[in-house]
């Protein structure tokens, strides 16, 4: 009967010390991240200066709020109505005038699925329009893309698709769809790698 | 003859007896300015000659040149007489003697004295990991001044410590990477890597679709139009393991894991044994077989002590997640340079960060997860 309290103490000591095999006291990295982020406080590091001269607008989509580059001021010939003062049919008939937008080739889905009017609103050239005919601002053109590319849109909002601007810290700024993809020809062409390691090649011969 | 005798300045009393008089500067040979004459003129060196010798030792130009040999051959295939053996052992002594020599000298200029003083303090400083904030600042100031004296150029060097509530993590989208290698170029430029040996921290592997990761069959030095038909691309670099095996094997604790998860190296404490290189299961570490050289106008002057400052011959280096950038809130150079957005970097402890979103919403995996190294570098697909 005298052994019992000793045994009890021994068991307690064993229980207390057995799990402490690592200094940090966590079993794995996932557990550590979860635990340590429970009391997360902003470390006070800012990435704002690295956004630089890029003019941004804040957007909120679902639970994500972040900055994207402002678009309209970057468009060469915005506002569109400066030329598009007459209906398209009339402009197209005026053959004596110089052709506009001749350099644009549409390589985006097939012609059965998409044409100019899928995104552009012939009635209001200064705005884009959704499939349902709802007006979309040029600054929020990602909404247009999101209609079909919904999985990419989800990834983009979360940060898995697309490119971050500036730094990892707050405020979060990300490139919009059109900053990387040409909306008329969204496929990115293949190219050559920017470098070749001649030294490595030599060493391996 | 006189050339060979340069190192002999340090007489340790092993050869013939020198003049009996010892001097206040701690040496019993050579000229410290307080002796009016010396019995053996042959052993005298001018301040310039001595300074040149110190410089030579510091810059590592006199160390072993047998870079083609590996392993035991490096030791056994070298003709080593007592003289060369001594020379290799006495780098520190030479610096010390140089410092004493120049500081006692009446003829040496102020700049030379300052240089010698800096070399002395740098040679005998402690391990960076154990330094106080003031000591870290002091060594950084010395290195900046030393660069100014030697190259007549100003650099900016930081000794910023890890911030609380920051743990850096990285995600790599293997369905996005197209193998353009912009990341590799940006990394080399940002981190002042040796141009001659074309050292690169990042490797991009071109792998065949549908065969999984086969590193032995992958090509990490391709040169053709990319992306190649039927191939995918994935990058490897230092994964900044949370349980880093490279740190455990370092016999001198010259490499360690910082509080924000970065695995860093004190280049001044590293002895170049390359144990860490052998311990790393991911080929994340690189060794400087020769003195790293970067053209002066290409040197990135925004530096960090633990990051991209100029290295020496015979020390290890590796990716630091661009500590000079990341601790200041900037993305690493590879992340910024990637034209495809395949690289994602951020704070693992911030529940609203993009890296956390990726880890929680995408199917992520790590390399050799079963080793328990806990790399903070995840791969995922769209």
UniProtKB/TrEMBL annotation, chain A:
The family database entries (SUPFAM superfamilies) matched by this protein are listed as: Multiheme cytochromes (SSF48695)
Class III cytochrome C domain: from which residue to which, for each copy?
96-190
GO MF annotations in UniProt = electron transfer activity; heme binding; metal ion binding
Q: Which Pfam families match?
A: Cytochrom_CIII
> Which UniProt keywords are given for this protein, alphabetically ordered?
Electron transport, Heme, Iron, Metal-binding, Signal, Transport
Question: Per the record's keyword annotation, is Secreted included, yes or no?
Answer: no
Domain of life, per lineage = Bacteria
Matching entries from InterPro entries are given as: Cyt_c_III_dom, Multihaem_cyt_sf, Multiheme_Cytochr_ET
Name by which UniProt lists this protein: Cytochrome C
Source species of the chain: Poritiphilus flavus
UniProtKB/TrEMBL annotation, chain B:
According to UniProt, the name of this protein is 4Fe-4S dicluster domain-containing protein
- Write down the superkingdom of origin: Bacteria
The entry's keywords: 4Fe-4S, Iron, Iron-sulfur, Metal-binding
Q: What residue ranges are annotated as transmembrane?
A: none
- Domain 4Fe-4S ferredoxin-type, first and last residues per copy: 261-290
Q: Name one GO molecular function term.
A: 4 iron, 4 sulfur cluster binding
Q: Name one Pfam family in it.
A: Fer4_11
| Species classification | Bacteria, Pseudomonadati, Bacteroidota, Flavobacteriia, Flavobacteriales
Q: Has UniProt tagged this entry with the keyword Metal-binding?
A: yes
